[in-house]
Amino acid sequence: MWNIITPTGRVTGVLNVDMQGRISGIQEIHGKAEGWLLPGFIDLHIHGGGGKDLMEGGDALRTLTKAHARCGTTSLLATTVTASPESLASVLSDVRAFMDKPRSADTSRVLGVHLEGPFVNPDKLGAQPPESRVATREEIDYLLTLADIRLITLAAEFQENLNLIPYLCEKNIRVQQGHTLATYEQSLHAMRCGAKGFAHLYNAMSGTHHREPGVLAAALAHAEFAEIIPDFEHVHSGALLAARRAIPKLYGVTDACSAMGMPDGEYKLGTHTIYKYPCMSDLTQQ
Q1: pLDDT above 90: residue 31
Q2: Would you name the residues annotated as active-site residues?
Q3: Is 159 helix (H, G, I), strand (E, B) or coil?
Q4: pLDDT value at position 33?
Q5: Do 154 and 161 contact (CB within 8 A), yes or no?
Q6: Which member of 104, 135, 211, 271 lies 3.0 to 4.6 Å from 129 by CB, making a disulfide possible if both were Cys?
Q7: Closest by alpha carbon to 71, among 106, 103, 95, 101?
Q8: Taking the complete model, does pTM exceed 0.85, yes or no?
Q9: Which residues of 53-74 are buried (b: 16+ CB within 10 A; e: fewer)?
């Protein structure tokens, strides 16, 4: 017997499963539950996992989807980093090939591509490789022929990027602001053009000042949707609570890289080499 999380709240009981392995119903039973059952996670921002980075192409997507499935993520968006046109095209082709194959039961479902970059601010790259550029309709149209792009993160302070937001919305692609140094006014204008969300709120965006509010202030004041990395390392718990009060549809993402689920060591993020070490709290306890 379990505590079962449903759209209407918690139910104590057991799941009924049909011969095809699908949930057919919930039998409510009063008593002491042994644990918790909840729906699988949907992560809209995943770069890698299990030692593999998406930008490696090839079998990387199978490896990372297996790693995330083991941790309860049932669906995800394969997320790119800034890269050369050739590298980006190759990876998107590999994503499409993976999605065209029958899905294995031990992997997460890939819902499509989150294009995080290359249309971001070169002065707010964060961990992104230095391959940013402004968007063109020609590049967008070409990339759309290669894979199912569902989400694009861009910096709206560049006029070329801003001009393409209505076109992307017409293509049913969700647009969010991220890796940006836009002003409050520029960010608000992007929202009026159709940009709905914000990538990893607080991180890699212009902050806020009571006389010079930036993208963060625009998000807290006006956004309905925003990602946030709720690990209390990227964002302080107090900032997370403030975002929860301000943004109705705030949702957690991992922004996971190839080091996810792996021991300490050396890994890849696009063209960058990254290193996984024990966190400081672990070191102080040794």
Answers
A1: no
A2: 255
A3: helix
A4: 86
A5: yes
A6: 271
A7: 106
A8: yes
A9: bbbbbeebbbbbbbbbbeeebe
